[in-house]
Specification:
This protein folds into three domains: 47 residues, no CATH class; 132 residues, 3-Layer(aba) Sandwich (Rossmann fold); 162 residues, Rossmann fold (3-Layer(aba) Sandwich), CATH 3.40.50. It contains 16 helices and twelve strands. It binds NADPH dihydro-nicotinamide-adenine-dinucleotide phosphate.
């Protein structure tokens, strides 16, 4: 049940954003946490502050025409939702996936606003993308698509305005093509307009690794609260993209054993532990599938097409693929198999029922907006390096990332304590993120 002051706000969100289920889900989760805040501090429910937080500042939708390798004209739809700029320029990734529609981008932009606030850095929230499917497309096609997208999107960006990065389907290759086109149409080498760049053209060390590494740092800190660690633990990671790969890398460095990972076609389980060098070779260089990895590994690895990776027993689960990929049923299976901690590397990968089951089952649960904030935090470090025309070492940058993740963890934990829900990181993250955004919005007036 929602607080009676928040009920009409949510009803309004449903009415004004029909058919956008993921957006409704993300808003509902935050509002569920805010009852305690408006009870303690009623001024946050005044001046339509919460209503304004739920309404993006600007939503841009545009046509992206491009020509494929056979000379045929293709049309996709581009989106940028500039959600909230109270704390700084809009900041958040671009997603290229055929399932993308306005509701996906709005949910991601809403989450991003609180996530960015939690980092304590001067960045607002935004998100964008397209229903373009990069799978099976040649390099030249991806380049023409990225150039066309940026030709339109570029006019809305700027290092002090809106700074995109990568997300699903957008890595360094795509950022390169988009940065090249932005540079061409503006005639400016404005490094700070995009993050996730290559090291030779303005990128930051650790940005590639940051989301996965950061998620592991967050979970490590949660485990420490109970006197535990990754050492010797069995871990299951979903996905096999950027976040999954660098989650596996850091878990292995901390002595954990990742026994399974997946993609949208199935999962691979390997009791001895995933061979990360081979996985990287197949995913990052050959752009292959998890099935190719299993085939290359032979007898030691079992590939399960269409299976659910959460069937594999583990001490720690790190969902790192996509939204709503871990259901209530999956959560029951994990709890039955003795899972001790779950850290969301992806955005909103656990359904509300799954989250409830983990919290009720006393499983340590790190919500995405806190756990996966290392990516955007390191993007903000990339912006700092661009602004000062500097470049930091790997060690220095990773140390800063670790400090930021520990700070986020502690802020969430302290806020949960303060609101009478010790150990509830969902509540802690939502409230701490909300208060930082809300305070800035109150100071800036009705704009
Ligand atoms: P990638 O595109 O690198 O990898 C995504 C992985 O998830 C792939 O293995 C993909 O499999 C799988 N996947 C995608 N959609 C589905 C689906 N519908 N069902 C099953 N598997 C799916 O993306 P990232 O690793 O960058 O992003 C993963 C998650 O992390 C997303 O939720 C993203 O928003 C979040 N995130 C990413 C950040 C970053 O810095 N990159 C920062 C913070 C959060 P397949 O190849 O079969 O599609």
């Amino acid at each position: 049940m929602l607080d009676e002051k928040l009920e009409p706000i949510f009803a309004d969100v449903l009415r004004r954003n029909p058919g956008e289920d993921e957006f409704h889900q993300a808003v509902r989760e935050v509002l569920d946490s805010l009852g305690a805040v408006v009870a303690k501090h009623p001024h946050y429910a005044e001046g339509a502050l919460i209503e304004r937080i739920c309404e993006p500042e600007r939503q841009i939708i545009f046509r992206v025409p491009w020509v494929d390798d056979r000379g045929r004209v293709q049309i996709n739809r581009g989106f940028r939702v500039q959600f909230n700029s109270a704390l700084g320029p809009y900041k958040g990734g671009l997603r290229f996936h055929p399932s993308v529609y306005l509701g996906t981008i709005k949910f991601l932009g809403f989450e991003q606003t609180f996530k960015n606030a939690l980092t304590g850095m001067p960045i607002g929230g935004g998100k964008g993308g397209s229903d373009f499917d990069p799978k099976g497309r040649s390099d030249a096609e991806v380049m023409r698509f990225c150039q066309s997208l940026m030709t339109e999107l570029g006019r809305h960006l700027g290092e002090y305005t809106d700074v995109p990065a990568g997300d699903i389907g957008v890595g360094q290759r795509e950022i390169g093509y988009m940065f090249g086109q932005y540079k061409r149409i503006t005639n400016r080498y404005e490094s700070g307009v995009l993050t996730g760049k290559g090291l030779t053209w303005g990128g930051s060390r650790v940005r590639t690794e940051a989301t996965g590494y950061g998620a592991v740092y967050f979970v490590e800190r949660m485990l420490q609260q109970r006197g535990e660690s990754f050492d010797g633990r069995k871990v299951v990671v979903s996905g096999a993209g950027n976040v999954a790969i660098y989650t596996i890398e850091k878990v292995q460095q901390l002595g954990g054993r990742v026994v399974a990972c997946s993609d949208s076609n199935g999962y691979v389980v390997e009791e001895k532990g995933i061979d990360l060098a081979l996985l990287k070779e197949i995913k990052e260089r050959r752009r292959g599938r998890v099935a190719d990895y299993a085939k290359a590994r032979g007898a030691g690895a079992v590939y399960v097409p269409d299976g659910r990776v959460w069937e594999v027993p583990a001490d720690i689960a790190m969902p790192s693929a996509t939204q709503n990929e871990l259901t209530g049923q999956d959560a029951r299976t994990l709890v039955r198999n003795g899972v001790r901690a779950v850290g969301e590397g992806a955005n909103m990968p656990c359904t509300p029922e799954a989250v409830r089951l983990f919290i009720e089952g006393n499983v340590l649960f790190g919500p995405g907006k806190a756990t996966n904030a290392g990516g955007v935090a390191t993007s903000a470090l990339e912006m700092q390096q661009n602004a000062s025309r500097d470049s930091w070492s790997f060690e220095e940058t990773e140390e800063r990332l670790a400090t930021i993740m520990h700070g986020i963890h502690d802020r969430c934990a302290q806020t949960a304590d303060e609101y009478g829900a010790p150990g509830n990181y969902v509540l802690g993250a939502n409230i701490a993120g909300f208060i930082r955004v809300a305070e800035a919005m109150r100071a800036l007036g009705v704009v």
